[in-house]
Amino acid sequence: MELFDHFVLLIKYIFFGFIQGFTEPIPISSSGHLVIFQDLFGLKMENLSFEILVNSGSLIAVLIIYRQDIIRIIQNSLLYLSKKDIEAKDDFHFILYLILATIPAGLIGFLFEDRIASVFSSANMVGITLIVTGIALWTIRNLRGRKNDGELTWKDALIVGLAQSVALIPGISRSGATIVAAMLLGMKQATALRFSFLLYVPVSSGLLLLSIDRLFDDQLAELWIPYLLALITATIATYFSLRWFMGIMARGNLKYFAFYCFIVGTIAFLIL
């Protein structure tokens, strides 16, 4: 029986690692789906260290996919600071805009995250917020912006950052909120996607650094194997999910995610 219980525990952690990893990059809310699946199957992931860990897996996948962009932006920013190379100016400003866009969610999360989680943590509330996400995605389904990376402004960055802070509410997708805001501001799909996921890097890195003590305070010693499997699962799931989503963005098929949010949100609100 003990062996069976251990096996079930491993499957539980792998399952939630997959759910978190697969849903993180696509605009259907990873936090909302974790709430729904926990409610649906009567499972609870109460350790905060687990949430930190699977988010770190998603961060690893994003870093792998956008590694060339990250290296180029850092190199050009250093080049601009050292030699005032005009051709490197846009990448330097891009980093400044990412920093600016990180501030709203950081402040709001620090002040109100616990209160937000307590109010919106039920499956019924997640159903409502998923429907809101679907409406937002439906609104931008046919938009084709013109702004490239070098045409962004501090106002664009601040608005996208404010949109990201709304995603602290379970059921409001982080990628969905930032991409919707970016495209409403006139960004091209590729620019909106790149800004959204490069913005995920400082946000997720900051969460990891600020919560590293909690990661080791929980039951990491006795759960290191399930945690490791969840981390690997989340990393792989995020990698392939983001690659898939990039193709969907290129084809302009966001309406299908809107349909999904409408269906799952309605089921969560009416049934769960």
Strand-helix topology:
Layout: H1 2-23, H2 30-41, H3 48-65, H4 67-83, H5 89-120, H6 123-139, H7 154-166, H8 174-184, H9 189-210, H10 212-217, H11 224-251, H12 255-270
Gist of the model:
It holds the Pfam family BacA. The protein is mostly helical and 272 residues long. The protein is built from twelve helices and no strands.
Structure description:
- It is an enzyme of class 3 (hydrolase).
- InterPro entries: UppP.
- Its EC number is 3.6.1.27.
- Belongs to the UppP family.
- The protein is mostly helical.
- The protein has one domain (2-270).
- 79% of the residues lie in helices and 0% in strands.
- The chain contains twelve helices and no strands.
- It has helices at residues 2-23, 30-41, 48-65, 67-83, 89-120, 123-139, 154-166, 174-184, 189-210, 212-217, 224-251, 255-270.
- The radius of gyration is 19 Å and the shape is globular.
- The model has no long low-confidence stretch (mean pLDDT 86).
Q: What about the largest sheet?
A: none
Helix content: over 70%
Put simply, the count of helices is 12
Low-confidence stretches: none
What percent strand?
Answer: under 5%
**SSE pattern:** HHHHHHHHHHHH
Name the shape in a single word.
Answer: globular
How many domain modules?
1
Mean pLDDT: 86
Number of strands: 0
Structural class, from secondary structure content? mainly alpha
Rg from Cα: 19 Å
Distance between the termini: 31 Å
EC number: 3.6.1.27
Enzyme class: hydrolase
Membrane topology: Multi-pass membrane protein
Catalytic activity: di-trans,octa-cis-undecaprenyl diphosphate + H2O = di-trans,octa-cis-undecaprenyl phosphate + phosphate + H(+)
